[in-house]
Amino acid sequence: MYHAAMIAKACPPPLRSLALGAAPLLILSALALPLAAAAAPPAAKSPATAGDILAASIPADWQAFPDADLLLLDFDSGRRVVIALAPGFAPVHVDNIRKLVRAGWFDGITINRVQDNYVVQWGDATEKKPLPPGIVSAPPAEYERPATGLDVRRLPYPDSYAAMVGHARGWPVAGDGKGLAWLPHCYGMVGVGRNVAPDTGTGAELYVVNGHGPRHLDRNIATVGRVLSGMEMLSALPRGTEQLGFYKEGEARPAIRSARIAADIPPAERPRFEVMKTGGPAFAAWTKARANRQDVFFNHPAGGVDICNVLPPVRPTPPLTR
Amino acid sequence: MYHAAMIAKACPPPLRSLALGAAPLLILSALALPLAAAAAPPAAKSPATAGDILAASIPADWQAFPDADLLLLDFDSGRRVVIALAPGFAPVHVDNIRKLVRAGWFDGITINRVQDNYVVQWGDATEKKPLPPGIVSAPPAEYERPATGLDVRRLPYPDSYAAMVGHARGWPVAGDGKGLAWLPHCYGMVGVGRNVAPDTGTGAELYVVNGHGPRHLDRNIATVGRVLSGMEMLSALPRGTEQLGFYKEGEARPAIRSARIAADIPPAERPRFEVMKTGGPAFAAWTKARANRQDVFFNHPAGGVDICNVLPPVRPTPPLTR
Predict the structure, then answer these.
(1) Is B1 part of the contact surface with chain A (CB cutoff 8 Å)?
(2) pLDDT given for residue A38 in this prediction
């Protein structure tokens, strides 16, 4: 049998059998954590799996995303997408996005492009909707930032694109090893659509990666966040049939009914999410276990892992009750 | 304006403008190649983009997949998925798959699992359908093969999982640098579901990668092919809501109406696909251009590329008319 704590990508891969005992969530539900994991720690001979480590984690291993950084997109379908914004990496773009949200600019905005193995993109299809006052119309090219102050925990594995990769402040990070760092384009990461330079995008046009990480976009676009919840709705949208995956005239375009920042709604209604502290011991053990799979399914642990396959674990937590 | 030859992942990324002039196909359509590309080669000062190189390729740069290696899955919806099988990497599993197809075993088989950012998987949900005679019930673990004879063209970029990566015979390849090679788990690659060792799967349960390459599965599963056409249908299927993305009882399961090997149908009805010759000069130029994007959109070419972002270009070709 499989360990009860096998989770998401940590869990057994393509199986012939339907007799499975694992939690399937991309986002680990703290509420669903099997209590058995605490009662039955892995035997000394069997190194902990990534799932074991998540199950055995304690509250101090996690930190909450600030309410001001949670972007809630409620679609006409009733589905919600929650995105964590990254003001530490693209402060001007993120500030623009917050202002667009607060001005109601995103309300009624549609998904216009779904290109297979690339991006889902939303914005003003008419390109005529005026931006609200206070938006920085030509933000700086926030494609990189100084690595100084990030205290990146480096992964000891090579990367095909960057001199170094690792984690900082709950985010995946890539760097040039010479003082610059950036958020890599991984599945579920959110960026700012733009035209050719010197345009950097305002934040009014956003996209999320829906396939293998298009890391060649790193350092060429402002990456502003990560989808925490609702990705499986975005990724299953029909691919657009026009060039570059744009929807054809008349094809259904999912519409955002309401975009809000969590900090702007009553505390009891705010969704809350935690990310594993990327500087802590549990996270270090988790990345190591992801690179050296000990789950019963695996015959040959890889001894390495791609940054996009070790995005920090995220979990929803109950709303504040005060 | 953008080059007419910008294609798929070689084309401009998230744009603010809808004024685009590129071909959107994941699989390059030879028939749709803009003639303008031949008439207007890139200026001497502007290095060729990956799209330019595809547009300028000649017939000798391409090779056809053998009809005996093309697996056609026709779904009840009318949609077709075409998979190239890789007998050079997993001959016993591929032979099993051909036998299952020829016995009609896959007809009526359903997709039972769609896990976000992982796999789409099909097989016998009842686990009671008897296998036809002649199937090898316990194939060898065809997870690796000798690199000897493959003549791998190595990529000069590091990989997070393998000692080396490159291409051979129209396929992406990873290797340990000590004589073993295998097909990496990239978006669109097809593998054989199995139970825990010593089971290796028969080929009756198959899956395709629908997210960031789960390369930790390399060397742990028989990888047997690649989706050439129809991926955008598989990738947009609703995610299953049961554990590991399995569909719940009562959720719609897409069914295979008919599975065939192209060689078994009349020549005029056979779909035909070509792959760029991975040992040739056009492919060498193309991989280099993918690692060093010169498209007008890019400010900062990466100087590297992940093996899963340089899967050999594939294109449909007209059926034989004799």
Answers:
(1) no
(2) 36
